[in-house]
Design goal:
There is one protein chain. The chain is 56% helix and 0% strand.
């Protein structure tokens, strides 16, 4: 039998401590805590387009749906870089914004 090394015990302890926590990956962003939207339309937009994980960051940029319509592609790219938003989600967010702004997606 191989003697247990100190780092083996530390790894086992860390693994045991993490068992109750859900894994967080780039593909599965951290679950969003309940975010209160002052503007119900903005909250509906975020929910409809599955952006709840990024709700806090979106509220940092826009307080209302009208504010959100003023976002440019560069603003979305900046928000995506700050939050680690996956590329496909960024494309869908940009398409939803174009539709919201009155353009074709």
């Amino acid at each position: 039998r191989r003697p247990r090394r100190r780092y083996d015990r530390a790894a086992t302890a860390a693994s045991t401590a993490r068992r109750g926590e859900p894994k967080q990956t780039r593909l599965a962003p951290p679950a969003a805590s309940a975010v209160a939207f002052a503007d119900e339309a903005l909250g509906a937009f975020v929910g409809e387009h599955a952006l709840a994980a990024y709700a806090t960051a979106i509220l940092g940029v826009a307080d209302t749906l009208d504010d959100l319509t003023e976002m440019t592609d560069a603003d979305v790219d900046e928000l995506a870089a700050e939050t680690g938003m996956p590329k496909l989600k960024v494309r869908k967010f940009k398409a939803a914004l174009k539709t919201l702004q009155g353009g074709d997606a």
